[in-house]
């Protein structure tokens, strides 16, 4: 579990964190009806950080990252993404969604559209990019995730790992400054986890700000600069990977680590 499932060389020297704040969360609380799902969340993320969010099932990891691009509403506190306050103002939500890409456990590709069409749909219809230009950008990112030859196929004809790389390429076509990953490898067979992690490592090496909910603790150790542990809707503990794994502070973190490592 703690081994990184790749034999790829990782160049951490390229993963630099800047002074610029990418995301700021202050006193954030969220309820689902009467259920208090996120409790007093405070978190500052700088540009270039690679953050892994870990924690037991149901601890609020998905809800937290879904709040960051307004897929979920928060009821209390302040979220600022790339200088824009996340409020009910649709203009702001639109702006933030442009800056923030999201990749889910289930790839959410449109089954009746070709891979190329999946990649160009939002650029053409949301961004009003000319079709030819959108296709050039799409091919660029398909090459980047190493499956340009799949452009004319349909999602059902691709392996899970290939579909997830298409989903990542689709996000990149919108030129995000921040990428959110919610268990991107959890639905994949072991041999396909590697190819998706390799793509994520490459993004990290290019300086992308990344928040990743993942159980891949090898990725956390070697790629993340910070691991955040959540339990019962709270950030219980956060630290650099070395300290987080070797010297966990809270009992809840120790218990969690003893179960997964
Ligand atoms: P995690 O991603 O850490 O597994 P989630 O953020 O998905 O946790 O869920 C946190 C808690 O909120 C869980 O108890 C879950 O059942 C609950 N929950 C998630 N989504 C909803 C929803 N749409 N309505 C009500 N409760 C929800
Ligand atoms: Mg989840």
UniProtKB/TrEMBL annotation:
Gene3D superfamilies assigned: P-loop containing nucleotide triphosphate hydrolases
GO molecular function term, any single one: ATP hydrolysis activity
CDD domains: ABC_HisP_GlnQ (cd03262)
Superkingdom assignment: Bacteria
Keywords: ATP-binding, Nucleotide-binding, Transport
Pfam families: ABC_tran
Domain ABC transporter positions: 23-257
Cited PANTHER family: AMINO ACID IMPORT ATP-BINDING PROTEIN, PHOSPHONATES IMPORT ATP-BINDING PROTEIN PHNC
Family: Belongs to the ABC transporter superfamily.
Protein name per Swiss-Prot or TrEMBL: Glutamine transport ATP-binding protein GlnQ
Species: Roseovarius litorisediminis
